[in-house]
Design brief:
single chain; 819 residues; alpha+beta; Rossmann fold; Isoleucyl-tRNA Synthetase, domain 2; Isoleucyl-tRNA Synthetase, Domain 1; four-stranded parallel β-sheet; globular; binds ligand ANZ; binds zinc ion; ATP binding
Length: 819
């Protein structure tokens, strides 16, 4: 039997692609361009099953678009700064670069073996000085525009990694990296002003609608968390000036019965009456030990402390007791709320615990919240609400109240966002140093562009051990840290924090467009040709991290006039995960599947085919249900078909088996559409069907010399090359094609072969078959009826009788009952 040798084929074609530069784009303007991008890997160990899934999806798209005649860019690089390298360096008393670049080499070898159609000439590593020089350069542009700034604030602190974390890196109160419970610390940190772009991050989602998974857009929308409402000013006894609250329900102001401030806010401290100071401080200490998640939980009983003061309701001058309670957060809205227990469940829970009155001001028809303990929301008739009384919908209630507050100078329309500024400084070593010098005379001074990069000093092993401050602030880095101020020349110190690695990854896709460019982060002309990315592939876990940050960076660069578009990624695919025995693979469960070992056993093609065939690309794959052995069997079958073709290349298929030609062209049309729609698993099913159909012709029909068999085998090869590239190259060679199959062109289906010419229609008269008609498959009932009645055989058997009843079931049956 003819078989292909998977391993030999892999080595042969890898070498060919590399020498031939098969996957280096022409970039000469002769073809339309397409940019396919996979989220670049972090170099921890070798590639795993997750990479196998993510990268094969991008590769199918890239290979398909190349066959379709596009000039495709499909680059690769590494997100190579970050904590694990530093932790490994501490353990081995080495430099983080050693671990990093060794792992990169291992992964690079595996990527090549995995048959990805990558352009290696654009390779980048974010930890290379040539790269992070431009990360620093970009930081300085943000700094100049006031978009990078320092402030003191309570920050998320990971006690295990000994570093601060961005809000996005805290998952349910735990460190996204190591899982330790996150605590709070007051620190001076660097931020990017993402909040200034909140509305544009929302508005520009319009460009992504229908092209990004709905789930990701919803997550981003939620994360940005736009709320419309009003600011309302309350006077508070013993407090200078009004205290402002943010509310989404200004229309319920007459129902306010108390007032709450966040315990850790400055406000609470200012408002607290002397006799309540002791109780307040005790409560404040307790608050610090509780995570934001717990604080917002609706399950937790409400706690708080009376501050001994009253706020005055601006619409009716009522005195509202002021509490500090942890269900109000300091960093949302203004950190103070007007509490309306009848219409807000959190306020109602608090009111019932603290015995505060509940006053309904919107009658929604539901029972009184004071009795049920269930707050009511939504439209209703306003009651006990002054000039709002009698209104019946929320929209007019809100407008009327805001107009009234504005007229009285006690409030105004407001929009708030849940999104916070991006905390970007890290107290760790293995990242891009923040290019700022702190001068006692001049303050924060930017390192001049011509002095970039600010290179990391040569620290290793123990120098890097976490001590709560950056290793760059430690004794081993003194010589690096102490510099002359770029502005006055006096003694000054470098900033000792490094940037979050998400800064590195917020612009790498730009760098691919002009690798090695020495005069800036990228050449704007190159960018204009390649960007935006046509297809981005990566995990959904980046929805509110990398994908949000990259969008933010792109908008800032747009405002700087450096790019001409506002969204970096046109289309996004979130691949599913590979799990095993119904669970995520993990060391502790011992259910890990080793990609290298799978490839050794079945070959790259069979693994790639298995992953693609498993299901829709965005669904999880349970490896326990997969059979790479049957994938390999199918590939051998496909190979045998191509190897057995004996007709010469270029033979006109016109004289070939008609039925097979119909199937081939239907498959071409369908597979083209399926690839456009990214229904890759169905593509595999259709290729399998075509192989079976061609096999049947070979075995029972006109045999291996039939040109229709060649036509089918050629398309099988092309379609298969997007998924199983090595066997496809072997098949292409067997068919006499010029290497590589990746350089071949995609056929289009012949419309004439897409229509099935005719079907047979049976015509019965009084239950007896009187005629068999060849008709078009899409014939209408009316036409079919006319043709049937005109048939001479039918006419004969009717013999002049009238038709009493006629049943037409186009295109297969006509049944006539004569009178
Ligand atoms: C009075 C009121 C009456 C409210 C009512 C709601 C319903 P979203 O939609 O999430 O923006 N709030 C404001 N600042 C807060 C803070 N720092 N911590 C906790 N809660 C805060 O929520 C806005 C609503 O959440 C605001 O509207 C306020 O309660 C509360 F029938 O004001 B509302
Ligand atoms: Zn100075």
């Amino acid at each position: 039997m003819t078989t292909y040798d998977a391993v030999a084929a892999q080595e042969r074609w890898q070498a060919f692609w590399e020498q031939d530069g098969t996957f280096v784009p022409l970039d000469d303007g002769s073809r339309e361009r397409r940019y396919v991008l996979d989220m670049f890997p972090y170099p921890s160990g070798d590639l795993h099953m997750g990479h196998a899934e993510a990268f094969v999806m991008g590769d199918v798209v890239a290979r398909y678009w190349k066959l379709r005649g596009y000039d495709v860019m499909h680059p690769i690089g590494w997100d190579s700064f970050g904590l694990p390298a530093e932790n490994a360096a501490i353990k081995r008393n080495a430099h983080p670069a050693e671990w990093t670049y060794k792992n990169i080499e291992t992964q690079a070898r595996s990527f090549k073996r995995y048959g990805l159609s990558l352009d290696w000439s654009r390779r980048l590593h974010t930890s290379d000085t040539e790269y992070y020089r431009w990360t620093q350069w970009l930081f300085l542009r943000f700094f100049e525009r006031g978009l990078a700034y320092r402030k003191d604030s309570m920050v998320n602190w990971c006690p295990n990694d000994q570093t601060v974390l961005a809000n996005e890196q805290v998952v349910q109160g735990h460190c996204e990296r190591c899982g330790a419970a996150v605590t709070k610390r007051k620190l001076n940190q660097w931020y990017f002003k993402t909040t200034e772009y909140a509305q544009r991050l929302l508005d520009d989602m319009e460009q992504l609608e229908g092209h990004w998974p709905d789930r990701v857009l919803a997550m981003q929308r939620n994360w940005i968390g736009r709320s419309e409402g009003a600011y309302v000013d309350f006077d508070v006894e013993g407090h200078d000036g009004p205290v402002t609250v943010f509310t989404t329900r200004p229309d319920t102001l007459f129902g306010a019965t108390f007032f709450v401030v966040a315990p850790e806010s400055e406000l609470a401290d200012q408002i607290c009456a002397p006799e309540q100071r002791g109780a307040f401080e005790e409560y404040l200490e307790a608050t610090k030990r509780i995570s934001d998640i717990e604080r917002q939980s609706t399950e937790r009983p409400k706690t708080g402390v009376f501050l001994g003061r009253y706020a005055i309701n601006p619409v009716n001058d009522e005195k509202l007791p002021v509490y500090a309670a942890d269900y109000v957060l300091a960093d949302y809205g203004t950190g103070a709320v007007m509490a309306v227990p009848a219409h807000d469940q959190r306020d109602l829970d608090f009111a019932r615990t603290f015995d505060v009155p509940v006053r309904m001001v919107v009658d929604t028809g539901q029972p009184d919240p004071a009795e049920t303990g269930i707050a009511t929301a939504g439209d209703g008739t306003y009651v006990n609400s002054g000039d709002l009384d009698g209104l019946t919908d929320k929209a007019s209630g809100v407008t009327t109240m805001i107009d009234r507050l504005e007229a009285a100078g006690r409030g105004r329309r407001a929009i708030t966002y849940r999104l916070r500024d991006w905390l970007l400084s890290r107290q760790r070593f293995w990242g891009a140093p923040i290019p700022i010098v702190h001068c006692p005379q001049c303050g924060d001074v930017a390192v001049p562009d011509d002095q970039l990069p600010v290179q990391l000093p040569d620290l290793r092993g123990e120098d890097l051990a976490p001590k709560g401050t950056s290793p760059l602030a430690g004794p081993a880095a003194t010589a690096w840290r102490e510099v002359a101020c770029p502005s006055c020349g006096g003694p000054a110190e470098r900033d000792t924090d490094t940037m979050d690695t998400f800064v590195d990854s917020s612009w790498y896709f730009f760098r691919y467009c002009s690798p090695g460019f020495a005069d800036g982060p990228f050449d704007e002309a190159d960018l204009a040709r390649w960007m935006p990315v046509d297809q981005y592939v990566g995990g959904v876990e980046h929805a509110t991290l990398h994908l949000m940050y990259s969008r933010f960076f792109t908008k800032v660069l747009f405002d700087m006039g450096m790019v001409t578009f506002t969204e970096p990624f046109r289309r996004l695919l979130n691949q599913g995960q590979v799990i095993n025995e119904g669970k995520a693979m993990s060391k502790s469960l011992g259910n890990g599947v080793d990609l290298g070992e799978q490839i050794d056993r079945f070959g790259v093609d069979a693994i790639r085919l298995t992953v693609v065939f498993a299901g829709p690309p965005d669904e999880d794959i349970d490896w326990a249900d997969m059979s790479p052995a049957s994938s390999l069997k199918f590939l051998q079958r496909a190979y045998r078909l191509a190897a057995e073709v004996t007709s010469a290349p270029g033979t006109d298929p016109a004289g070939g088996d008609k039925d097979l030609r119909h199937i081939t062209h239907r498959t071409i049309a369908d597979v083209t559409q399926l690839l456009d729609d990214q229904r890759f698993n169905v593509v595999v099913a259709r290729i399998m069907e075509l192989v079976n159909a061609a096999r049947k012709t070979v075995d029972t029909g006109t045999g291996t010399s039939d040109p229709a068999v060649r036509e089918a085998a050629e398309f099988v090869t092309l379609a298969l090359s997007t998924i199983a590239p090595y066997v496809a190259e072997e098949m292409w060679a067997a068919l006499g094609g010029a290497p590589s199959v990746a350089n071949a062109s995609w056929p289009s289906a012949d419309p004439a072969l897409l229509v099935v010419d005719s079907v047979t229609c049976v015509v019965q008269v009084q239950g007896k078959v009187r005629a068999k008609l060849a008709v078009a498959p899409d014939i209408s009932d009316t036409d079919l009826e006319a043709i049937a009645l005109a048939d001479p055989g039918v006419q004969r058997s009717l013999d002049g009788r009238e038709v009493r009843k006629i049943i037409v079931r186009a295109p297969k049956l006509v049944s006539i009952v004569p009178a």
